[in-house]
Design a protein that fits this description.
Blueprint (H helix, E strand, L loop, with lengths): L3 E2 L4 E3 L34 H10 L1 E2 L4 E5 L2 E7 L6 E4 L2 E6 L5 E8 L2 E9 L5 E8 L2 E2 L1 E6 L5 E8 L2 E9 L5 E8 L2 E7 L11 E3 L2 E8 L5 E8 L2 E3 L2
Parallel strand pairs: 3-7
Antiparallel strand pairs: 1-6, 2-4, 4-5, 5-6, 7-8, 8-9, 9-10, 10-11, 10-12, 12-13, 13-14, 14-15, 15-16, 17-18, 18-19, 19-20
């Protein structure tokens, strides 16, 4: 397999789990099989599945990067010439000092593509997204450190599209928003005690939304929307 010179583009990969990130590039890949599983059928909550993936994943700090056409590419460096290498395909991982996984994701032809997930230091999952063409595409979910779901949002080509739901750490629902390509269409908000916000009213992209409450139910900040976009007053 041919090797490609990336000397003009290389930057070292620096990822920090100790402190809890369509170009016309060549399509060569490593000997690692190209990811073919659908992100929807890979269950990272299943310990055996996760264990198997981690055993085959490449350490992210062993890869190098370069930028082209606004995209970041990852490659496996040549042992003799570190500024040459092969675009990476497969799973990449990063772990904490305690050995637990910090970050795990899929690559195809040097690009992030597929499932990407992160975990807290204690092993509780923090985030999971589906990446397509370098952008969120599909369901994006985050969790609090206690395991309670924090956010569940739908994306299309990197923009919120569809239902986006947030929860408080006490498991009560915080908000339900509907978006069309990053533009807010409608919104319902609740206070930390479960009481529905009497102020928030956004319909057809127009209205007022309370963005946050203090624990005692006092309003922190509100925003006004016009045609789906926040406006300054």
């Amino acid at each position: 397999m041919r090797l490609f010179l990336f000397a003009l583009f290389i930057s070292s990969l620096v990822l920090g789990c100790t402190n809890p990130a369509d170009p016309s590039a060549n399509k060569e890949s490593s000997n690692t099989p190209v990811v073919t599983e659908s992100p929807k059928v890979i269950d990272l909550d299943d310990n055996e599945t996760l264990k198997t993936i981690l055993s085959k994943a490449t350490d992210l700090d062993s890869l190098r990067t370069f930028s082209a056409s606004g995209r970041l590419f990852y490659f496996s460096p040549n042992e003799e010439k570190s500024n040459t290498g092969i675009l990476y395909s497969g799973w990449g991982k990063e772990t904490y000092a305690n050995g637990k996984v910090c970050r795990l994701g899929q690559f195809i032809d040097g690009k992030k593509e597929g499932i990407w997930a992160e975990w807290y230091y204690d092993g509780q999952q923090e985030m999971q997204s589906i990446i397509k063409e370098g952008k969120k595409n599909g369901l994006h979910t985050t969790w609090f450190e206690n395991g309670q779901k924090r956010l569940e949002a739908n994306y299309k080509a990197g923009k919120k599209d569809g239902l986006s739901t947030e929860w408080y750490e006490n498991a009560r629902k915080k908000s339900e928003d509907r978006f069309t390509m990053d533009k807010l269409v409608s919104s319902v908000v609740w206070k930390p005690n479960g009481e529905k916000c009497p102020v928030t009213k956004v319909e057809s992209g127009n209205g007022v939304r309370v963005d946050a409450y203090y624990e005692d139910g006092t309003e922190v900040i509100r925003s006004r929307y016009k045609d789906g976009e926040r406006v300054n007053e």
